[in-house]
Specification:
Elements lengths: L4 H15 L9 H8 L3 H13 L3 E4 L5 E4 L8 H9 L17 H21 L4 H12 L10
Antiparallel strand pairs: 1-2
Helix pairs in contact: 1-2, 1-3, 1-4, 1-6, 2-3
Length: about 150
């Protein structure tokens, strides 16, 4: 499964803003787009969606821009994804089966449920702060110390 570009860019922007949450300042979309190498006009649309979902605050004028509306500890990544997909639960397309009960239809139902469960386990409760910490671990792994005998 892959995230849509809209979700990818939204998560990148949210990570950027989460890193600056303690600075009590606003970041302009131009700054975010440049730092994360994102198309600015598309990013503006994404930021507006996140603001509409009350995940971001915005300020117009000098010193204006965007900032997180809540502490990164309280924003779940799933909220960002839902806001950008206009979905309530997950990224999987849900189609109703015609109910014919064939073995193939039952297999698809089982796989859909497993994918949904795996998605919930992977994304369901991770916060923006936890994601930032995972990024830090991945970007700068602590070297393991070896002891010589």
């Amino acid at each position: 499964m892959q995230f849509s570009k809209r979700c990818q860019y939204g998560i990148k922007a949210a990570i950027y803003l989460a890193r600056r949450a303690d600075e009590n300042g606003y970041c302009q979309s131009r700054e975010i787009a440049q730092a994360e190498d994102l198309p600015r006009k598309f990013l503006e649309s994404i930021l507006l969606s996140l603001r509409s979902a009350e995940l971001l605050e915005s300020k117009v004028g000098a010193g204006g821009g965007y900032q997180l509306a809540k502490d990164p500890e309280t924003i779940e990544v799933q909220e960002i994804i839902s806001a950008l997909n206009n979905a309530d639960s997950n990224n999987f397309e849900e189609e109703t089966d015609d109910g014919n009960g064939t073995e193939g239809a039952i297999a698809i139902t089982i796989l859909d449920q497993r994918m949904s469960d795996a998605y919930e386990q992977a994304i369901g409760s991770i916060t923006l702060k936890e994601l930032v910490e995972l990024v830090d671990e991945q970007a700068d792994p602590t070297p393991t110390q070896t002891s010589s005998s």
